[in-house]
Amino acid sequence: MLNNKKIIVVLPAFNAEKTLEQTYSEIPLDIVDDVILVDDSSLDNTIEIAKKLNISHIIQHDKNRGYGGNQKTCYNKALELKADIVVMLHPDYQYTPKLITAMCSMIANGVYPVVFASRILGKGALKGGMPIYKYVANRILTLMQNILINQKLSEYHTGFRAYSIEVLQKVNFNNFSEDFIFDNQMAVQIFKNGFEIGEISCPTKYFPEASSINFKRSVKYGLGVLWESIKQ
């Protein structure tokens, strides 16, 4: 705990057998009270590895619900377990779990109710191998979103986030998409509900086992991101 806040890390997993153990090994269990892994009907041995690691709460979807659907299960379980701070971390080892303590400290000390780990602050993205086209698309989308909703985030698309429980209770995430646009809907609605988002610079790693979406889905995601911002 930090400042007597119960901290829960949620891992929305899909085919994460090659990276789960490395991700889990860097979670600071000295301050993290529980870890929840939700497996979205993986086709590999993600569940078996999670059990071997003795992850405290393992949930398996009978059928694939999508990235957003996975997170909904994660957050509902964290609410059930009465978390004070919930950290969402992709188990693909693209982001370093070593930042969990710093991110949670910002929330536990009342600095921000939400903290995003940004790949764009500093030079972490390109240095870590982010493809140029993804970097350029990220920058363009972020600029347009900031203009449309009058904010100044460096990145809206990170898969490493920490939330105070008040935010998850206020933002009606169960009504959001089951697809990748879920993350963006979260960010937009956090601002719409009057919360602020802090950011911390995060190094990143791009390698074959790290999760990614293909070009066609990336285009669909980008258009959805802009539409969510325009609606506000």
Automatic annotation (TrEMBL):
InterPro entries: Glyco_trans_2-like, Glycosyltransferase_2, Nucleotide-diphossugar_trans
Occurrences of domain Glycosyltransferase 2-like (ranges): 9-170
Protein name (database record): Glycosyltransferase family 2 protein
Natural source organism: Flavobacterium difficile
